[in-house]
Amino acid sequence: MPIEDRLAEIEAKLKKHELEKKDGWDKFKIVSTALIPLAIAFAGNGYAKAMKEAEIRSQQIIADGQLEVAHTNTKIAQARTVASFFEALLSKDPARRTLAVKAVLIALPVEGPRLVQVVETTDKNKQVRAVASAALANRRATLIQELFSDSSSTRKNAYEALLASWGSDSSLVLELIEYGRDNSSNLNGIYNTLVLLSHMSRDALRPHVAEIEKFSREVEGNGVKTKERAEKLRSRLPR
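Above: the chain sequence. Below: its structure as tokens.
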């Protein structure tokens, strides 16, 4: 029987006329007899609740630990992949370096562009530098498109890759704005563009403050969420 019902039962017994005729000791025995199972039930309920909370905390700790292990394993795997590409990128064979440039952008979506940027600026072979430059431009254009994808995970990955590799590149600003204007009806893409711009380095934004402000006001009509994001972007612009 639920605890609430037990309490109601006790109250009913106390109100009965025959209880009033008994002495104090008899009343005590009646009440105590009813309270014993109530106390047991209350204690049992509290114990069960405590055990359930402990189980939930334990499961959360295990889940957090598993997530941390997964993140660590991912970082280790990425480090090994990066190491495996160094030999090819430093090869004396230009053809092999060219192939490595293309492969690293596929294998390492976030870290890859930074490696290729080094090749683009330091490789002694003009053709290899040209391949690296073209590969980076193509990768960046693809990521900007993916920022407007229907898939939330694709948009998230594109945002992280663009910010990691080009967050300090001023030329990205105008590319984002141009693509955003051509796809202004894509609400998710516009919102992601505003977020990315607000998180780029201030030095990258500084040459294009006027254009960024203009664009942010153009897209404000996309909704309350977009308007709030546009205002936040403008508040972060260098002055």
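The CA atoms of residues 94 and 128 lie 7 Å apart.
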